[in-house]
Amino acid sequence: MGDASAEKEKGGAAALTLMRGLEVLGRVAKGDNSLPKISKSLGLNKSTVHRLASTLVDSGFLSFSQREGYVLGTRLLELGHAAQQQITLTRVSHDYLVRLAADTGDTINLGVLDGHQVHYIDKIPGTRRIEVRCVIGERQFLRPTGLGKALLFDENEDKLREVYHREAREFPNYRYDLKGWLEVMKAYRAKGYAMDMDENEDRVRCVAAPIRDLSGKIVAAVSISSAAQYMDDERIETLKDYVREVTHAISQELGYQG
Fold first, then answer.
1. pLDDT, tens digit, for every residue of 133-152?
2. What's the rounded Cα separation, in Å, for the pair 90 and 93?
3. Which residues contact 91 (CB under 8 A, 6 or more apart)?
4. Taking the CB of residue 109, how many other CB atoms lie within 10 A of it?
5. How far is CA 31 from the centre of its chain?
6. Closest CA to 228 of 195, 196, 208, 203
7. Mind listing the pLDDT tens digit for each residue in 30-41?
8. CA separation (Å) from 151 to 138, 181, 258?
9. Which strand (E) or helix (H) includes residue 139?
C-alpha cells in the first residue's frame, strides 16, 4: 500500500506541476513577460515560477531575452501548425468518411503520422454485426497497419528499414522479415493502396490509401477496416477503389493537383 500511495502522490505532484507550467504559458501569452509579473498574477513565489519558466524555455515553449523578457517559443508555432492541419483535415474529410462508412458498412479511420506512430484523429463506426475496435486518439505501430504503410509511401528504403528495425524491437513476432516487408511496401506503393491482412489484430483486415496536400506531401491516410469474414479477396478488390477515390477527393479539397 505504501508504494501505491507514494506513486499516487508522485502522479498528483506531476499533474500539479504540469498545470502550473500551462498557467505560466497562459500568463506569458497575455503579456506577463517577467518573473515578478507572472509570480504576482499566479500567486506563486518567484523561485517556483523561475523553475517552471526555465523548463519551458529549455523545451522551446518559451523564449527569454534580457530585452524582451519571456515570450512564447517556436515550439508552440509547431504545435499550432500541426493542430491547424489536423483540424482542417478532419473538417474537410469528415463528410467523405461518413459517406464511405455508409456505402461500405465498414469502420473508417483517418490517421496522421505522429512521431513514430499512427495517430487516429477521426473514426466513423461501421454497421457490421462485428465492430472493429479503434478509438480516436489511439496510436498504433506503422509497420503492421494499413494506415501506417500508406503514410510511409514516400519514404526511401533507408527510412523504411529504420521503421522496421525500431518496431521489431518492441514487436518482434511479425509476419514479414525485412526483405519481405520492403517488397510488400514497394508493391503497395505502386498500386496506390496498402493493406493490413490480420497483421495488427487477428481476423481484422483493412485497406488504406494516403491523402496529399497542395505540395503533394502525404499528410494523412484513410482506412476501411472490418472483420476478416467481410473482407475476402474479391471484396478487397472493390474496397481498394473506394478508398483511393475518397482519398483523392480529399486531397483535391486540400489543393492537390495530381
1. 778 889 999 999 999 999 99
2. 5
3. none
4. 27
5. 32
6. 203
7. 999 999 999 999
8. 16, 15, 17
9. strand 139-140
